[in-house]
Amino acid sequence: MVGATQVQKNIPVLPWMRNPVDIVDFKETPLTLLPGLDPRLDKALKNVHISSLFPVQVAVWQETLGPGAFERDLCVNSPTGSGKTLSYALPIVQMLATHSVKCLRALVVLPTRDLAVQVKRVFDDLAPAVGLSVGLAVGQSSLADEISALVKVPRLEAGFCYDPEDYANRLQSAVDILVATPGRLMDHINTTKGFTLEHLRYLVVDETDRLLGEAYQSWLPTVLKLSCPSDEIFAPCVKAFSPLICGSLKTIRRCGVERGFKDKAYPRLVKMLFSATLTRNPSKLGLLHLHHPLFMTTGQSRYAFPEKLEFFKVICESNDKALYLVALLQKLEGEKCIVFTSSKEMTHRLCNLLKSFGDLQMRIKGYSSCQHQAVRSKTLDAFRKGEVEVLVSSDNLSRGTDVEAVANVIIYDVPRYIKAYLHRAGRTARAFQIGRCFTLLLRDEARKFNALQRKAEISSTIYPLSSESIQALQSAYVSAFDKLKESVESKASRKRKVNFKSSKPRKAKAMKVSKD
Length: 516
Hints:
This protein is of the alpha/beta class.
């Protein structure tokens, strides 16, 4: 049994993960010292106030445009807020800028709409400077509008009759880079004429563990099949370009039909994986068919938290966590805070309860996946600008979303898994700034939380809240709870009335028919 326990502790151990490149060995580097950076991109970065690259960005640059030269697929495990998005956006844009052919050559897949919108903004800061265009494919937006933005329709000459197949072949990609969620990506693959992945050069899987953990309509095998079909190798291309080919013939992909690529061989599809909690499961990583993968991580711990993040726990003596939350928010004196709950239902319930406190001198908003994209974007913008101090959110906001100057994260409901805790905590202390993570704990939750922290190799300091401050809020809490209860009952009553009215005419009509 001892042997089995040891094996269990060490699983999974992939050979290429045993000796990773340590990102800690790289230092922040000014743009002026970055080898090979395109002057146009140097200017674009400075226009958005970036004058140097963080360690993870320097490390990835070395393995892509430096000595590494994209020879290996990359798997990067780096803390939240360390700059992973720019680490892949910058080398991809620079590489694509060396060829002026207009076709979809880079695909970035992300698990949520909000994260996709954020990543597109990073590419938008860089791509136009070198003549590249970026597309976005996410849910809750018009599919027709996306199609018109992604596919270029050729002009038809007046009076000339085109064959439908010939017309379809004339359709061209309007973008060089696409940022997408897997569901909407599959919509375009299945229904959009002229949308093709056959010219794909780079595939980025951001938040890899989540994307590999859910099927999302089998998006990954579909993308790999369409971008790198192993059964379609063209002998003339192999013969003509054999001096330029490294590796086996399986790295040669079929010839494209878009202008500029006809009768030309392709290099292999480069894959780049990024996460703060990168999976080490061999079966999941095996789905990607990685090419001599290189593992890059920060330090020795599997779970990498932001460097300047401080941890605190608030022990709640009673079962009324909301009382302790309000006392904590008052003590933080209007600092920008994100409060994480266990579900979207709990998010809006807690948000409404906080708003029912009459004398709280802070603006509070809720944020969850049940809101429309436009509403969430508006709420997030208001939070970024400081128009909202407290954002109550479900885990919809926990992964990758970058909000400047978030001083505190408050975990209202303790998550079951360490990965969820890490991603929530990582909304603060980003870009090497100081941040604090508070966790509210009932007495019976403390043991489970302590075990979670031991697994993450971190520890929390008890944050004191005086019993006087809790007592002072008691009457206001009871009043707020009563207001919330009354509001919920009122809404339920109105809903019952609406249902009754909508059903009444149908009953009357049925009775009339019966009499006739």
